[in-house]
Amino acid sequence: MTPAQGVAEAQKRLGLTCYHAGQKVAGMVGCVACQFQIRNRSALPTCPQCGEMVWAWLDEGPAPTPEDLSAEERAAHEKAQTELNPPPSVEEGVSLEVTPEVKIEENIKLEP
Ligand SMILES: [Zn+2]
Q1: Which residues contact residue 46 at a Cβ distance below 8 angstroms, ignoring those fewer than 6 apart?
Q2: What is the pTM of this model?
């Protein structure tokens, strides 16, 4: 089984976004085999406890796409992301909420 296959299998099994050793991911991840957790900063190591190569994203917020993916891997990752966390439906051409104009009041006395 390749690391990428291990990732795909673990994602399906756990319902979490997974990565494999060597991918650059910053945040809290946990070993899918022994649950050992690390706060990672750059390239993922193999699990220092059991040697597993696959890590699951445990941090808050959306799981990042590793920087060093090939186009194919990136597409697979993003597809998995969409399946795990369906994005809120977005309609194109809808303008974002308009920030109300700042109301400027003059002659405000700061001191009593
Ligand atoms: Zn482990």
Answers
A1: 21, 52, 53
A2: 0.66
Of the candidates 72, 88, 90, the residue with the CA atom closest to the CA atom of residue 80: 72
Give me the pLDDT at residue 95, please.
66
CA of 78 to the centre of ligand 1 (A): 25
Per-chain residues with Cβ under 5 A from ion ligand 1: 31, 33-34, 36, 47, 49-50, 52
Taking CA atoms, 20 is separated from 3, 98, 102, 105, in Å, by: 6, 42, 48, 56
CA–CA distance, 64 with 91 (Å, rounded to integer): 23
Cβ 78 vs Cβ 84: under 8 Å: no
Q: Is it the case that residue 90 has pLDDT exceeding 80? A: no
Give the Cα separation of 110 and 46 in Å (integer). Answer: 60
72-87: per-residue pLDDT in tens?
777 877 787 777 776 6
d(CA 2, CA 41) in angstroms, rounded, equals 23
